[in-house]
Amino acid sequence: MCQLLGMNANVPTDICFSFKGLALRGGRTGPHKDGWGIALYDSRGLRVIREPLASCDSDRARFLQEHPFKSENVIAHVRQANVGGVALANTHPFTRKYAGRHWSFAHNGQLPDLRRSAGPFQPFGATDSEAAFCQLLNRLAGTGFAGGLEEAVPRLEPVLAELAGQGVFNGLLSDGDSLLAFCTSKLSFVTRRAPFGDAELSDCSTRIDFREHTSAEDVVSVIATEPLTGNEAWQVFAPGEWRLFRSGRVVGEGRFLPQTSLAA
After folding, report:
1. DSSP-derived secondary structure for 2-20
2. Catalytic residues, which ones?
């Protein structure tokens, strides 16, 4: 299955350290060699870089590990193709403009029976992931909703449940201000705040002392399919849980699948 990476912070923050761990899983320490991509929000808007090749072999991915592009919201993904061939159109994250905002989305899992939904948003590629993203936005558009992600969560919960009922549905969704993470099988997060310490990537010997790169007011949350570091206390999502991150903190959480359905 694919691997997800998200970051949400209260100040512009670079993703170099965490992205290095993810990029290694894209064909070197993991089998996810069928494409990689990253969406970075900054004061100028949304930047998206995607390539239908292994991130461990990509010059662009290497450049991002060595040059700090600061962002308050990031969604990144390395792909192991299951539905849809290896192609740029099938590479995450996917983006659309809706209600005056740039939305981005990445998914881990398979929804084998998902069909295209009616509405203004239709997939360009052949993945079930992009079709799911379009379905989320079409549901919002169908109600005339014109707000941001934070206000949209109550409207999205029943759609998340419907999609989760069709397969494995772990994902990240952002409108540039906040980031929604949801899980049916595997997702974890860590929130870093003062007093900061050091961390070491699980996929290589790279280590960082966050005290050298932060201030006492900084708060940063990192979300990943599997923990990227081995010496930090990552929190594991339970199946059916969602969390909304804003300014680096969890500002909302809930369950889009009832506990009884998870145990059935």
Report:
1. -EEEEEEEEEEEE-HHHHH
2. 2
